[in-house]
Amino acid sequence: MYRLRLKFGRGGQLKYLSHLDLMRLWERALRRAGLPPAYSEGFSPHPRLSLAAPLPVGVTSSAELMDIFLDQRVMHEAFVHKVTAQLPRGISIIDVSAVSIQLPSLQSRLRQAEYAVEIESAETGEQVKERLAVLLSKEQFSWHHARDTGERFYDLRALIKDLWLIEKTEAGCKIGMRLLCGPMGSGRPEQVTKALGFEELPVSIERTMLIFE
User: What domains sit in the chain, N to C, each tagged with a CATH number?
Assistant: First the structure.
């Protein structure tokens, strides 16, 4: 058994791809490249592909991590060359490395994620910074989120580790967010922008980093 850790990006062309469709895309690309993933054992075997965290629909990324288990060893350069040829536009391999089979899963060690969130706003940079400072100064921020299973109530502030202004643009601004992402809960950038007082949905959201234990 051979375990590869893949870092990849998802561009705007495929930002509306669901998590399930993304996993199917990778499995299909590996098979067409002649590098099918190993399968789990048990009554219902499944391909051993494991993302650090599902990427929300509508969000791009330059920092996704996935572990791929193969039955055969393959040179990293050959892997990138063969698999890239089978990937659609919008998915790009950034890096690949071998990791020990014994290491804990990516999901079990993931704790935070960083995002770059673009917002339309006529405010100055200082006014935006003031919004960020006000939210960060709060000890808690009650939030409710409607789901198919009913409404969920929680403290949104507890999911926010840091906020900062990346840049002020002519049409708005780009805000950096470091949010919890793991077994203790996951922050959602579009909820944070609403908590900041921006009524319109973000123009774009990019996941730029995953932070592990």
Answer: 2-103 (3.30.70.580), 110-212 (3.30.70)
- Three-state secondary structure call for residue 82: helix
User: Which residue, chain included where needed, has tokens 């994620």?
Assistant: 113
Strand, helix or coil for residue 150: strand
- Give residue-wise pLDDT tens across range 123-182: 999 999 999 999 999 999 888 776 666 677 889 999 999 999 999 988 899 999 999 998
Tell me if 200 sits within 8 A of 123, measured CB to CB.
no
Q: How many CB atoms lie within 10 A of CB 29?
A: 18
For the beta carbon of residue 54, count every other beta carbon within 10 angstroms.
15
| CA dihedral sign of residues 54, 212, 161, 202 | negative
What average pLDDT does this structure show over 75-83? 95
